[in-house]
Amino acid sequence: MSSPRDVVITGIGLVSSLGEGPDAHWQKLAQPGLQPVLEAARFAPYTIHPLPEIDWNLQIAKRGDQRQMETWQRLGTYSAGLALDDAGIKGNDELCATMDMVVAAGGGERDEAVDAAILAASESRNDRDVLLNEKLTTELRPTLFLAQLSNLLAGNISIVHKVTGSSRTFMGEEGAGVAAVETAAARIRSGQSTHVLVGGAFQTEHSDMLLGYELAGYLHRGAWKPVWQRQGAEGGGVVTGSGGAFLVLEQREHAESRGRKIYAELGHIVSGRARRRLGELDAEIASLLSQAASPDGELLAISGASGAHAATAAEKATFDAHPAIAARAFSTLTGHMKEAQFPFAVALAALAVDRKAAYPAFDATVEKPFVGVPRSVLATAIGYHQFEGMGLVKAA
Amino acid sequence: MANLNDHMGRPIVAVTGIGVVTSLGVGKADNWAALTSGKSGIHPITRFPVDHLNTRISGMVDFLPSSSQGSSHLTYELAETAAREAVAEAGLESADFGGPLFLASPPVELDWADRFSLYNSDKQDAGAERLLRVARALKELDIFETTQFGSIADRLADRFGTRGLPITLSTACASGATAIQLGVEAIRRGECDKALSIGADGSATAEALIRFSLLSALSTHNDIPEKASKPFSKDRDGFVLAEGSGALVLESLEAALARGATILGIMRGCGEKADDFHRTRSKPDGSPAIAAVRAALADAGLGEDEIDYVNAHGTSTPENDKMEHLSLSTVFGERIGSMPISSNKSMIGHTLSAAGAVEAAFSLMTMRESVIPPTINYDNPDPAIVLDVVPNKKRNAEVGTVLSNSFGFGGQNTCLVMAREPV
Fold it and tell me: What pTM was computed for the model?
């Protein structure tokens, strides 16, 4: 039974190495045997999925605004613009001014050249704290700070796209993306919001962004492999990608009253924090699955699996225990996009529901075929290190 | 029988536990004694050398075991210390809180001390390549965890037994208020009957100081540190970077009364509005801040004439104090000249991600104690800002309702309305 306060998806903004926009992603991902776009040399021994060519002017009209951001914020602002356009909200002052926003964010790019110079000088200096003051006070670009602040992705979305109802930034890797979608949906269901912009972006083409994984040895090294096939390979299993995913979530009644196309309905989002050191992850994933969906019927699952060995094995074991689940781990083709991972999964799930077709296997040696029309599709994000979430996306 | 729902039929949200740490000390008692005697916690920086720095003072918390252990460890300890006080006061089980956690904390980065030590652990290759190679050989997760945005909340969730996926958030200098707002909203939606909201910030590193300095945001009145933060004064020249934490146990009034808890105050309303004008400056007409104040009043179901006291954002920057005056005088009209409005930051500096939570804690104490903490260093009033800032000395006053403002970079404006009594 549909209700006027259902949460529906009316806008999707996607960017990844595969291209930009929902249509481009659908067309690519619907091709059986699609090969990923890889960059293996620039950050060797790590492979990444790079950004496609983007004309920032299409979503960030002012050069001055572009200059105030580094790539991460541009990517997020651009992806958000795609979603707003898709929902017919961009440029509508009234809808933008009353639109709430929850952004899942990490931090922006540091100045690699300044950092490298400080590190190089540190080899011959014992007064490293003084060295730091000396270099940072003279070499940092003043406005770079604003390109690094987590909440300034949302700030730039407000400035560029005029979304000003409210602005909140959640931090905490994949969990931030889960909580952002969960909170946005809860606001709509309770009548606090009529329409919310929610999503995130990740720019992996920067050494610090790789370091954030590699301090715990999470990155896969050596030849590229699909997400499910990295156990036992050199490194920790994660191959990252640059990308962004934003959704416009809307109250059903609000979307219908302005005659918008509805991709899909968003069911309840469930989230958790397994104490993994105590071995709780397997049970947590099983519990989330049983809360989010009826896993014994035929089910397409858009998995945000990162490739990180322990978390990915646990997720795979849960799916394997339910023979009717056909998983599609999109990071095989896009790379892991951290904060954007869950919004991306929800977006791909909504596309499948809307197009009334499943994606072919992204890794045909592991993923099962799915025959028929997916009426509801599961989206998952099991954090590479911590936090878990799932949600069911249903035919509108 | 108390009314358990508010004017919009939502559960009333009570505060049953408060905790606070600032440069003035650990805990409510020490902080309140210092705050009401007009004492400043601003002091010369000793944590790192100040060579080449234009600003050499701060309100850092230098007296905790983690004070020299880097941002992540100090932020955790600040959050844990304030939350421990709040949970104990609420009379709840300290390791089995049983409600969600909302943590406002600064964005994390690999500390320079760790960057230097990783880099200098060998001499092969250079730059980022060396850091990455050394990083993947580490056997311990300690450094890794300081770079994960969710790790502090994860540790706090373990420590206090909070429920579910903890939310870590940043709305810049409004973060602490947003953490409280998220807790209030979760209770109002019926998702939980209690929530732990914390704002904590232990990120006053040399790099943080330099970044704010480069944006000309900080006071350079180094000579007499305790006089540097002077909100609403003519010669104010920037904020003073500071650390601290505030924690509130929020509960539905119904649940709090049912278990016989002491009600310390009521979270009446929250309001927010984003600014689309500029990354660091407010729209010249103040309309977003005005809208945030009005949204908070509407959410609280209170009129402009029903606010007894304003706990100002009052950072002591030329821009903030001017714009805050503009927005308050627009909302409150002529009454603004006679409403008490004071800035805790005159004594504790700007605790950034913690500020909204620290100042909510002090706002609740203001009502409970019937004492308004002063705005100190008010020796040279700005003639363009005519406000009753409770200058230099505390004031005894019955305060039934407080508006607490938080404004931040990135167009963040969040206001909280608190009340002493449920109705």
Answer: 0.98
